[in-house]
């Protein structure tokens, strides 16, 4: 169950997992929306004095986070392209018989 408990604790948990959530998004617009919503909820929780632990979760700098997200996305793309190129190179080194056997065994690159 998520979202249960005092905002101070739920926001801390969300803050710790935010980069992973951002990495799952596909567009800069989605990243900005998520960060804007997160920052709004942090500020709102700081204003509410309902008892419980204090809200010490920092807000996120949206422009810096978007830049970091884009950098991580570009790195993942480069790694994916390198892995694909290595697989294609290994495939091209196989003999015709080895490629046929790999296709039958389901180990051929896709």
Question: Roughly how many Å apart are the termini?
Answer: 38 Å
Assign the structural class, choosing from mainly alpha, mainly beta, alpha/beta, alpha+beta, or little secondary structure. mainly alpha
Radius of gyration: 22 Å
Number of helices: 4
Strand content: under 5%
Short description:
It is built from 4 helices and no strands.
Task: Give a written overview of the molecule.
- It contains four helices and no strands.
- It has helices at residues 7-23, 28-47, 62-93, 96-105.
- Helix 1 runs antiparallel to helix 2 (28-47) and helix 2 (28-47) runs antiparallel to helix 3 (62-93).
- The relative contact order is 0.12.
- By secondary structure, the chain is mainly α.
What are the key terms here?
mainly alpha, single chain, 4 helices, 110 residues, 72% helix
Write the layout of secondary structure elements.
Blueprint: H1 7-23, H2 28-47, H3 62-93, H4 96-105
Helix pairs in contact: 1-2, 2-3
